[in-house]
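User: Round two. Same drill as before: sequence, then structure, for each protein.

Assistant: Same drill it is. First protein:
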Amino acid sequence: MRGEPSCPKCGGRVRAPGLFADAWQCSVHGQVHPMQPVVPPSVEALGVVVHRTQVPVWMPWPLPVGWLFTGAASAGDDRSGGRASAVACSGPGPLGGMGELLLVAEELGVGLGARYAGIEGPDPGHHLNVDSAPDAKVHAAGRPTPLWHVRNAPEDRAVFAGEARGLWLWAILWPEQSGLLMYDELVLTDLRDAGGEVDLVPCGALTPRLLTAPEAPPRQGKSER
């Protein structure tokens, strides 16, 4: 499926709008915002995602020391614009070794964040205990933004979620101990507001985390959305 739009919830094939449907369709999930082919890490490719999206494109800025931009993805088509964005970064982990961070911003029901988090979706709401104190806090576009630990995620990663600018914000980190990075109150910038600073983003190799999601949860039928 690389190079073709796919379902943001399961990675399956999608049918383009046509005579009998005016929206993209997944045989399992029905109407979806199609996930576009993954963008290799470059300033130019990142600019394409930034300019077509209708949602924030979050990135830690400045990046932690030694960290690099390692790819981007989005869901949506030319008519609707991007309804979800995913930005990947990697660098030295807080306890040694390499760490990876994937930030997803999305509208309600898109399901891209849940797919990468490896949980049943499409949204994180019932996986969060928002009645308790937040587990982490970031500064998103200058605003303190609480995040809660997402329950039921696979043990190889740490997953946090909350709300920023009225949309879901997911932070997914590999390996699990890299979740300690979230306790440093990261500063997140919406790259739509970054202007010429986007040209300064350091780029690394494309992360395979964006290309496939082998740990994605089982597909759910339309009645479970």
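Second protein:
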Amino acid sequence: MTEILVSDVNLNSVCERLEKHCCVDQNQHNLSSQPQTPVLKRHSNTGAKLWGRVRSKLLRQKLDPQTVQSKNWHMDVIEMNGIKVEFSMKFTSRDLSLKRTPSKKQSGVFGVKINVVTKRERSKVPYIVRQCIEEVEKRGIDEVGIYRISGVATDIQALKLVFDTNTKDILVMLSDMDINAIAGTLKLYFRELPEPLLTDRLYPAFMEGIALSDPAAKENCMMHLLRSLPDPNLMTFLPLLDHLKRVAEKEPVNKMSLHNLATVFGPTLLRPSEAEIAKAQHITSASDIWSHDVMAQVQVLLYYLQHPPISFAELKRNTLYYSTDV
């Protein structure tokens, strides 16, 4: 995980200047008497899209762990079309960035057990999950790289603070915020849960189930595991699953396939507990455990994403036989 901070003033300036460099006003184009290559009509979110391209280029060129792997922020500058973007970044190892630290403030939502949040809110799905999904589907489902492209760290932290402390300002803030920051906030929420959404207890069973070679046995096992989840976890997972499927339906536009989305969310929703890691550390390092399991985590989520629609009521009624026999 690498955090990138860019000042709001610099961000706005970059967007405006990039638009001037890369976009031609339609009226100016029509006034010209010389034949020119047709240009696309500029949309209101052009600046944000261009800024996304700058960030993508930044990620490809600059995020080399060997050069930024230190505790200090690394200052740098990137140029694009004659425009300089100043930024700060630091590298955090996967072991640390994915470590879950329960919140000491039980009044917030980040780092608080999901059943505590839903009980307090008197809801089936946490408010933060519902609002972020709604906003992404409203204006971000066509965004190229949605959920893959990182939002600005300061924007995500601002949203986190508002969700934790002041629900009155959330809707206004969401409507004005960059959509990648909202997507990043949703990912951060799941990453900071005290335990993964698919739970520590069931993690070994998910790893065994996805490895089954017999399709019928795998189906029985994977559905049984969903039914074994606590109700708040299951009732949050299913709407998220449906949302990600809707995002993938726009793959020709947003370039996010089911596999891409599983790669982004799999290791966040499902990963070994610290106890599992400690138990295996006498054999290999924690980093090796992460690397070994990450593909299986992706495959678990991909299995459910590729599965026909799953309803909570049907799962609870169904009494499919659970088997791990190959």
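The longest strand covers residues 83-91.

User: Perfect.
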